[in-house]
Amino acid sequence: MRLGGEALIRSLAAGLVLLSASCATPEAPPPASVRAMTYNIRLDTAADGEDAWPHRRQAVSSLIAFYAPDVFGLQEVMPHQLDDLRTDLPDYDIIGVGRDDGARGGEHSPVGFRKSAYDVEESGVFWLSETPDKPSIGFDAAYPRIETWVRLRDRSSRRAMLVLNTHWDHIGLIARRESASIIVEFLSSAMRPCEGLVLLGDFNAPPSEISYQTIAASDLHLKDARRGTVTAPFGPSGTFNGFDLLRAEKEPIDHFFVHQQDTVIRYGVITQHAAGKLPSDHYPVVADISEPDCAAGK
User: Do residues 146 and 179 touch, judged by C-beta distance below 8 A?
Assistant: First the structure.
């Protein structure tokens, strides 16, 4: 089963949980730009020992607060972790559901946004499977995989922006390839003229993989923010660290896609740590994006 265009958008728009969260803003993005962040915060599991969530919560929340994104996508967020972030960051709203049941069950891949800056026009989720309208495991994936999308309206400029957050399977190559195709099909019907777009998340795929290339080479005319930044990318190439500060992955698996016409002012992989202790097994990625005037075409 494939996405059914506008009908699917309407059918999936209901049932999302709108949660409150907030952040201090010591470092704001440049004027007339949007700061976006993608961050796999690592699920909470006792098997991680000293790297389990209770030992990392403050570091994760503080990092998000300091970099002050306007919008963000998080991955591997368990329900109680989402509750913690809502408490720690009360200036954000967060939208998302659990991948296991479409409610609170299992990992969430939520979209957060600064609630003083944006209104929600519509939102939804779909599963990256043969049955995207219901909780399901698709293709050769090891787990259910979900896509969260939110259409926001900037309260000042009145410009709309479509934000999508994803977390692809780490095992199934077919699942990742098909996930890319499902997302491209969704965007083909969901994208609107003169509307901003940020597609981000943990793709579990380097740029050399066909699943990544399915999006990068699609007719949607998107570009990887890392490859399209005005200034040189900041930080290492790799975005997975496995809680090892010395680990050096050659390719990123956490990505941003934006419109070809957008200007990526800066892009950075943030390796912030405290005495060698990392907040997560992925590095957060931050980008400042400036959109052209609508008259410039999009």
Answer: no
SS3 49: helix
Per-residue model confidence (pLDDT) at position 1: 45
Q: Which residue from 269, 240, 271, 276 is spatially nearest to 50, judged by alpha carbons?
A: 276
Q: State the total domains in the chain.
A: 1
Q: Which of 12-26, 33-47, 162-176, 282-296 has the lowest mean pLDDT?
A: 12-26
CATH of the domain at 25: 3.60.10.10
Q: How far apart are CA 198 and CA 225, in angstroms?
A: 10
End-to-end alpha-carbon separation of the chain, Å? 30
Instruction: For residues 168-195, give the mean pLDDT.
Output: 98
Whether 261 contacts 292, CB under 8 Å = yes
pLDDT band at 16; cut points 50, 70, 90: very low
pLDDT at position 292 is 84
- Residue 12 lies inside a defined structural domain of this protein: no
Determine how many CB atoms are found less than 10 A away from the CB of residue 165.
28
Strand order in the sheet with 285-290: 17-21, 92-96, 111-114, 71-75, 34-40, 285-290, 263-269
Residue 141: inside a domain = no
Non-local (6+) Cβ contacts of 18 within 8 A are: 93, 94, 95, 120
Residue range of the domain that includes 115: 17-126+146-167+189-296
